[in-house]
Design goal:
Length: about 220
């Protein structure tokens, strides 16, 4: 790690190593490197080369309170941070159900590997961040998502970037905002915290809340 540079790595983690994981290194608003990888070893190699002070991961990094394993079918399905998302009108699959189980298992294991290397990792949610930043999610329009990130002043966006890479860029940017005091951690790191950008402008969060409550919930992607 290079303590002289505030580099952030954003990871749009796939539940399985057989699928693409988007990964991006950012310093300020400049993209230093962006690609996709598959295995945990490839992720760790990218991180080692980037030397970040912070990593943001699009995956649950904690289990709901009281749960020791995902196999406990009678346990709690929501963490306090998940309930905050629900109150804000952002809907998603519970982390204990369906394909989220594999992603949760991999996310927790990856965060532990990074912690052993002395690199802090925080959970992020690119879809929710894109809502807050008033840019489309990838399933709505890849082109508009790319242009929206460019309008935020991010440098190094490439037309060849796929959705996983653009979500990783979003995650890296959330980390940059966090370092600048422009993001919030809903929940906490013990029971589960999700890093989200603060609204752009005094009345943004109020407008966003009204907009979300008036439309159908969206699944976490």
């Amino acid at each position: 790690m290079n303590p002289q540079r505030d580099i952030v790595v954003g990871i749009d983690l796939a539940g399985s190593p057989g699928r693409m994981t988007g990964i991006c290194a950012m310093e300020g608003k400049t993209i230093l490197a962006c690609s996709y990888v598959h295995t945990d070893e490839e992720i760790l190699s990218f991180v080692a080369a980037a030397g970040p002070v912070l990593i943001t991961i699009d995956a649950p990094l904690t289990l709901p309170p009281g749960r020791k394993t995902l196999e406990d079918r009678n346990g709690e399905h929501f963490r306090p941070c998940d309930r905050i998302l629900l109150r804000r009108g952002i809907k998603f699959f519970p982390i204990t159900l369906g394909p989220m189980r594999m992603l949760t298992t991999r996310g927790i294991a990856l965060a532990r590997l990074l912690k052993r290397r002395g690199i802090p990792a925080l959970e992020m949610y690119p879809g929710a961040a894109q809502d807050i930043l008033n840019i489309p999610r990838k399933q709505h329009s890849m082109v508009r998502l790319r242009h929206g990130l460019e309008r935020l002043g991010l440098r190094g966006i490439d037309a060849s970037m796929n959705g996983d890479e653009l979500d990783a860029v979003t995650g890296g940017y959330i980390g940059v905002l966090h370092l600048r005091g422009l993001a919030e951690l809903i929940g906490d790191e013990r029971t589960g915290g999700i890093l989200l950008p603060l609204g752009l402008g005094r009345n943004h969060r109020r407008r966003t809340s009204r907009r979300r409550s008036s439309k159908k919930g969206q699944i976490r992607t």
